[in-house]
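In this section we walk through a basic example: taking a raw amino acid sequence and producing a predicted 3D structure, encoded as discrete structure tokens. The instruction is simple. Fold the sequence below.
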Amino acid sequence: MTTTSHYPEHPFTSAEAAALGVSHRRLELDARDGVLTRWARGVYARAEVPDSVELRAAVVALAASNHHVIRDRTAAWLLGVDMHVMSEHDLLPPIETCALRGRNPTRRPEADGRTRDLAPHDIIEAHGLRVTSPLRTAMDLGCNLRRREAFAAMTTLARLHGFTALDLAREVPRFRGRRGVIQCRGLVPLVDQRIESPREAWVLIAIHDAGLPLPEPQHWIEIDEVPTYRLDFAYVNARVYVEYQGADYHDRTQQKRDADQIRRTWLRENGWTLIEVRRGDFTGAALDRWIRELRAALAPSYTNRRW
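The resulting token sequence is shown next.
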């Protein structure tokens, strides 16, 4: 069995391995046995090398043609936002690149080469690679991804890289006539840097799509003028709050679970109503249930009718 000492410490291609005397079959066997991680078609790294932005950049650099620009989900990945689905984590999908208008897209099998019109300010250098800027990447994904994934990408990029819905709105006219721009234009006003996770973004877009008023993200409850409890989404006047509980909720320490129970008890005793959303609550009957609960909680209890 080949040991990792036969391989470079940095990501490498199958051609580099062949130059070291390692056959393609040996590569595939070592990837199967966990000695190597196959990051992209023809691109490998030692299995013990931890995932990092630097590793990702090195992988992308090997899979992308020189002078092309990294775009879409691959750009987001390098900018700190992973929009790949779970099944794609075992093997990175083709690296998304683009040539500027008038140039030929890459034909490398490990890359998805396209041609795209980019202004100079649409391109930045990240980790030694030419990558679409966070703002441009958000607009592209707002057009290209399915709606809730698109909104999650836009809000997460906004939070990490400091742009706003107004910054996005200024870009919309440039995208006139592009496929997906109607979706993107509708999502832009909803982007809020205070949304802290992709699934929280899903919660907000579901509330919007149900025709309900939008809550305030990340609202702090003060006790004796001290910010004490933070709520994912709050309707302050109605004293209703919406919280997303992810898959890691039951993996929390007992101390954190106890603290959360104390927080919920205080909120309930002080007139707050909780609408809880869990991982599988974004489609079908589960979605209908919590939207119905939220609608009922927001319904005014006062009426001026005499009967």
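Looking at the output, two observations stand out. The radius of gyration is 24 Å. The chain has a mean pLDDT of 89. In the next section we compare this with other chains.
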